[in-house]
């Protein structure tokens, strides 16, 4: 109740699957704009889950980095489960830019700049033992100065995961790594790295690279376009809970560099190497966030575009 009065809520600026979003500002500092995200009331979750979500989300307030959305506050109210007070990011998200092929043009230097911002954000999360777990172009918001910021943290776990009936309908599976479909017990930052690979690929193609129609189909698409997980390329995979054996003659080999060069050659051979390292099937061998930042790709031409010169939405 007290926190609520620290902010002034203005007009609705959008609504998504889980929330209504309002523009607002600090009561004492009208120039500090915020987005107030009021989570929709969900039928099938319990108060306990909501409290977990609040706790987890509060923890994220501690993370302070230019490529992570600033969370100013979290409060509960009686008509809804949770309200988030977030940094106001007025320039939309990366998904809008990628898919507005009619109005938005960008090149491999712009892609490198956006990927650098995403990589630094995810590196900082992983350094602080936070997994995002729902990275996709639509969760990469753009600040007034062009900076890309990771958004929608923690919410993934609290809101979507236990409710499969709902998530098959509305939650996109295209950015999920194979270990999640096989229900690996312990998973790691490697989950996010696969998603970063999907985002990199989508920035280049301006289309989703692994668009499965169902969870089963998603695994099939991964086998076709990346390669079939086997004991050879991923020791232990056949022991995972939901692993389905594949007949020897149905195994698709891991795609060679030439295949990636054909599809993604515009980012150059080093960009392609980096992309391939993100799409390593075995999560233990997949490149880490640190590995991404240390990659030669960043030092090669072209230099990433300065953020103030990046394309804006039409
Ligand atoms: P979705 O992720 O399904 O688009 P969200 O609930 O995250 O839904 O957001 C709904 C809309 O509100 C977005 O499309 C965006 O335009 C806007 N929005 C979300 N967060 C912010 C923010 N921090 N600053 C400005 N606008 C935002």
UniProtKB/TrEMBL annotation:
The name this protein goes by in its record: Pkinase-domain-containing protein
Catalytic activity: L-threonyl-[protein] + ATP = O-phospho-L-threonyl-[protein] + ADP + H(+); L-seryl-[protein] + ATP = O-phospho-L-seryl-[protein] + ADP + H(+)
GO cellular component: a single term: transcription factor TFIIK complex
Record key words, sorted: ATP-binding, Kinase, Nucleotide-binding, Serine/threonine-protein kinase, Transferase
Molecular-function annotations in GO: ATP binding; cyclin-dependent protein serine/threonine kinase activity; RNA polymerase II CTD heptapeptide repeat kinase activity
Species of origin: Aulographum hederae CBS 113979
Binding site for ATP: 38
Protein family (similarity comment): Belongs to the protein kinase superfamily. CMGC Ser/Thr protein kinase family. CDC2/CDKX subfamily.
Residue ranges of every copy of the Protein kinase domain listed in the record: 7-298
GO biological process, one term: positive regulation of transcription by RNA polymerase II
